[in-house]
Amino acid sequence: MSANSKRIPVLELFGPTVQGEGMVIGRKTMFVRTAGCDYRCSWCDSAFTWDGTGKDDIRMLTADEIIEKLRALGGDCFDHVTISGGNPALLPALGELIDGLRESGIRSALETQGSRWQDWFLDIDDLTLSPKPPSSGMTTDWAVLDDIVGKLQSKSRSFCLKTVVFDELDLEYATFVHLRYPGVPFYVQAGNANLRETEPARMLPYLVERYEWLIRQVMNNTELRSVHVLPQLHTWVWGNKKGV
Ligand code: SF4
């Protein structure tokens, strides 16, 4: 890596743990959480990445420094790293990290709402595009998302789409996403609107109820046939705790 390696704003490095969401749910992985997001979702569980409350914790690290710190935390116990945010797709410099992980024999995963393209999307092993439903208060730019999906498909890159669902309107949105991009593996995931609860055991009945509700909605839906229905697994174990 060159002496001019670009620095990446990192808020959290942790693991090994299990991935709690999306296409690689349950996968043993390390996490790198980057700072900054172009969205302001009403139910964001990582608002500290963009609302200023985490700004003193941001470390500007090169790709090599990030991999060193991951090794210091996880030793030889991992072969998979998840890059999360915020929206990591705001950071062109992540390409160096993804290259560095691959050179070290480590698979990479990344989730983004699909509001920006980066050429390094093509090098991510497990890429999830997660457009945000109406309950987020955000508006999807379909032209941008079409462009991203089109670029990935034109290079035959595998990726998946995921939508978090809180209510009926979100489910309509999820159905629209699924039908707009047929053939792309599609995940719906129960939303967690209970972000204040600190005790996992008190939270679990709520999470189970939300997951059961989503399962019921999807089972009788003739348009949502080829879908995966997921809980947000880490909240079942750790509630809203950060850094796990
Ligand atoms: Fe939070 Fe993700 Fe929405 Fe950004 S896109 S505000 S990180 S939920």
Explain this structure to me?
This protein has 244 residues and is of the alpha/beta class. It has six helices and nine strands. The protein has a nine-stranded mixed sheet. α3 links the parallel β6 and β7. Iron/sulfur cluster (SF4) is lined by residues 37, 39-41, 44, 46, 49, 85-87, 113, 132.
- List SSEs in N-to-C order: EEEHEHEEHEHEHEH
Shape: globular
Rg is 18 Å
What is the percent of helical residues?
25-40%
Secondary structure tally: strands: 9
What topology, given as strand order, has the largest sheet? 3-1-2-4-5-6-7-8-9
Low-confidence stretches: none
Please tally the helical runs, counting DSSP H or I stretches of 4 or more residues.
6
| Average predicted local confidence, pLDDT | 93
Distance from N terminus to C terminus (CA atoms, Å) equals 30 Å
Bin the strand percentage. 15-25%
Structure summary:
The protein has helices at residues 63-74, 94-103, 142-154, 168-180, 200-219, 233-238; strands spanning 8-18, 28-34, 59-61, 80-84, 107-112, 126-129, 160-165, 186-190, 227-230.
Any chance you could write out the topology, listing elements then pairs?
Blueprint: E1 8-18, E2 28-34, E3 59-61, H1 63-74, E4 80-84, H2 94-103, E5 107-112, E6 126-129, H3 142-154, E7 160-165, H4 168-180, E8 186-190, H5 200-219, E9 227-230, H6 233-238
Parallel strand pairs: 2-4, 4-5, 5-6, 6-7, 7-8, 8-9
Antiparallel strand pairs: 1-2, 1-3
Helix pairs in contact: 1-2
Iron/sulfur cluster is lined by residues 37, 39-41, 44, 46, 49, 85-87, 113, 132.
